[in-house]
Amino acid sequence: MFEDDTTNPRGEGLPLQLWAKSRRREPTMPMLRAESEQVLAYAKTEAGKRVTGRLVRYNSTMENRKTMDRELHRRAPAVSRADTQMRNFIDEHLGPDGRIICYGGKTRFRMQEFYCRSRPRGPKNRKVPKKFQGNVIRLAWAVEVLCQQLELWECEEGESILGIITSGWRAVDYNRRVGGAPASRHLTGRACDAVFRRVSPVDSRRLTLSPKRVFRCVRRLQRMRSTDLWGVGLYRGWVHLDTDGSEGRPRVWRTRWSEKRKNR
Which of 56, 83, 177, 237 is deepest in the core (most CB within 10 A)? Predict the structure, then answer.
């Protein structure tokens, strides 16, 4: 098309490589990593297999291998800016061992504690999907703040709080099997059921903290506008906590068991 491929098509005399580089923004390393993962995921789909199979069937040279890579990049879905920001957020606040990191340091929770617990066939626990891990990290931050307040209000000197997540993120089939709500916050990683225990530094005794005390502590934090746990439910043996809601309208409920005990 042009006599010299290194010249600018517009005729300014700028080399073609520099002109093309000036016309586009250089991608960052997180964007390149997210794009490569997206392309690899697309290559595993049926449409991607058809593309790779058609190119490999007729060509096997290195040059045509590059053509196949370009074709996959062209057909793969684009990586949005929001997806890149979420990936950076997860990489920044999730340690290599699964420990969730807060701005002030490591929390007492791991991502593995929020896995879906039961599965009739296959692995015992199911991992939290990438798209919900950001919600789980924010939930762990809010529960960490609650544990710190419980240490101030409900513990004696030297004691610490151990938070046990009995139910974190749930898969749809597991949520249906345990009788959860169809639009439960557990499905998106915004809710958890937890039990809290007081740990003594002397003899390492673990005394279970009453769910009613935890419930009152959360309600106190809600009135002070000092928590992100705007949904709290009192059950027999555990407390439901979630971050879905608004500051002005917290969601609070109690089970019939707790109301009967209150009327006695």
Answer: 83
pTM of model > 0.85? no
- Cα separation, 62 vs 222, in Å, equals 62
DSSP codes of every residue in 32-64 = HHHHHHHHHHHHTSHHHHHHHHHHHHH--SHHH
Q: Using CA atoms, how far apart are residues 36 and 63, in angstroms rounded to an integer?
A: 20
Distance CA 201, CA 248 (A): 39
Nearest to 171 by CA among 190, 189, 195: 189
pLDDT per residue as tens digits for the range 124-180: 788 999 889 999 999 999 999 999 999 999 998 888 999 999 999 999 988 998 899
In single-letter form, the type of residue at position 158 comes to: G
Q: What type of residue is 119?
A: R
Q: What are phi and psi of 106, to 5 degrees?
A: -75, 145
Question: Could you state, in order of their start, the residue ranges of all structural domains in the chain?
Answer: 24-79, 82-263
Determine whether domain 82-263 maps to CATH 3.30.1380.10: yes
